Amino acid sequence: MFDVKTLEGLKHVNASKDPEKTKARLKNIWLTLDADGRQTVLGYAGVTKYAVSRSYERGNITPRLAAAFSLALEMNPRYLTGESDAPEGYDEDALYEFIGRKGGAKKTTVRTRTKKAAPEPAAYEDDDIAEADQKRKLSKIEDIIRILSKASSLTSEEIACIGGMPEEEILFLVKALLYKSNYSTDASELMFFIKFLLTV
User: Over the stretch 48-96, which tens digit does the pLDDT of each residue have?
Assistant: First the structure.
């Protein structure tokens, strides 16, 4: 049995190959349908009667509307698009093929899902955590040693200049360094060193 939900995901594009044939055929079929037949088509297509009248006035038809007519009236959907001159020839496989080619949908099959067992979380050893902490501490110590080696290369004039700097300028430089540390590795390492010195 055809799965009507398949029609919900169809693209809203014009599937008509011959607008004049689509106009005439769609209008003729729509106007000869009784109220129940119209409601069935509208229910399958998920549109209003105004959308159908616009389609037969303009000569365009969406894959969803063509499939709805085909399903409700058991007719060839290509008859409405002008690709075929034979209204007969309805079968579900042909309808699935039509909407797959025209509207992007594919035949759906109902599948039962089997639950997979959730993977067990990886076990972390306390030794691994301790080792990672140790590596992190060593890395920070290496950073401090590198910064100290840079500081030791300062000349006595540079050191005197730093020592005589007013507090406002030092605060300004620290703020500038803080901003720069977001973009530079050297500035980030220097900021870490300053924080380290302040907390020791």
Answer: 888 888 888 888 888 888 888 888 888 888 888 888 888 887 778 777 8
Cα–Cα distance, 79 to 39 (Å, whole number):
21
**Separation CA 62–CA 18 (nearest Å):** 13
In tens, the pLDDT along 124-175 reads: 556 667 777 777 777 766 766 776 676 667 777 777 777 777 888 878 888 8
pTM equals 0.50
CB of 115 within 8 A of CB of 10? no
DSSP state at residue 122: P
Query: What CA–CA distances, in Å, run from 75 to 80, 92, 135?
Result: 9, 10, 74
Q: Which two tokens stand for residue 191?
A: 């900021």
Closest by CA to 57, choosing from 26, 82, 78, is 26
> What single letter denotes the amino acid at residue 31?
L
